[in-house]
Amino acid sequence: MSIELKEKGRWDPLKVFFKVSIAYTLSFFVKNKDGKKIALVGGNLGEKYEDNAAIYHNYLLSNHKEQVTAYWMYDPKTIYAKNENIENAVPLGSFKNYLLFFQADYTFHGHSLLYDIVPAADKFLFLNRKTIITHISHGIEGFKKILIQKEDIPLLKRTDYFNCASQYEYNLKLNEWEMPEQKLIITGFPRFDRYPQNQPPKEVKNILMMMTWREWLFDLTKEQFIDSAYFKNTTGLLEHKGIQKLLADHHLHLNIALHPFMKKFESYFTNLTNAENGITFIDSSRETIAYSIDHNDMLLTDITSVSWDFLYLNKPIIFFMFDQEEYLDKRGSYLNMDTDLSGYKANSIDHVYEYLKKIIEEKITWNEWYPKATDYIDYFDQDNCKRLTKRVMKL
After folding, report:
1. Does the pLDDT of residue 1 top 80, yes or no?
2. CA distances, 391 to each of 145, 160, 163 (Å)
3. Which residues contact 325 (CB under 8 A, 6 or more apart)?
4. I want to staple 164 with a disulfide (CB 3.0 to 4.6 A). Which of 94, 169, 325, 371 is the partner?
């Protein structure tokens, strides 16, 4: 997890020190009176209630309330926890957050313990030997090589379990990440419990366009970003006359979702959309990624992890890796970008248009690579949360 995802210096070291010191001391005297286990759950840097972490938090609330008190950790700068009435929501960095961390029997995080569960955890993690820490993951690994920052090292070492979607992912984390075998568990991803398997659309009318994030773009000026391959190719798709005509002739809707980590560049894109031409920019504060997956019939992407959901559902995908050489040089991938993608691989904007035209005119409503889904996903039974709970909590 790149530290640039959160502004540097956000957590005042002195305030954290006092909160942690008092919370740690108090945790020896404040006992959980109801006898329930305590579980802290968090994901998406506390900025949204979605993905594996949110699905799992809701599962614990719905199925194990008598045995577990499940708390959700949220960014105090946001208002979604209040607006959505999320049960047992606790602001990250609050005194209660630190006290609960030392009391917790379990934590489950989607991205990083440091950003999802308890700020500055790498500085005092050695004080907590009680809590069983589980990384439930964000998406199936493969597209991006792992980035390990200095602050990640103690967190990874201390984590008890790394959840895997499949034997494929288990092997990757064992051999490429070099994680101890005893820490790897295969229970499937909680967010896949939302879907009955194999749900291709009846027709393709709504297209989700979503590109993933790139850490080397974060510090660019506006002028530099607008000159980047990322911006030029994204906007080039929207301005392509053939794509615009295809949308108009077939009454299609192209719904654009910026990756949450690219939100800082949102204002550069919004004036490029035109609802009258079927191109709409999704307001991420109002529409979740889960909703976008449910309400779109196909995906146009580079290599965002949302593609695994579209594969699981057997919906068409077009992959457009406009900066493949740069991406492989600066980040790298465990997958072969030319042979391992579960969808049509486009090498140019014109190529994207050709595949989109093929899908629409030939009425292709399924993913031709769907039989490959079992290479990356082991479970299609909607029992992933149940397996995870049984494996980690023994419930």
Report:
1. no
2. 27, 12, 10
3. none
4. 169
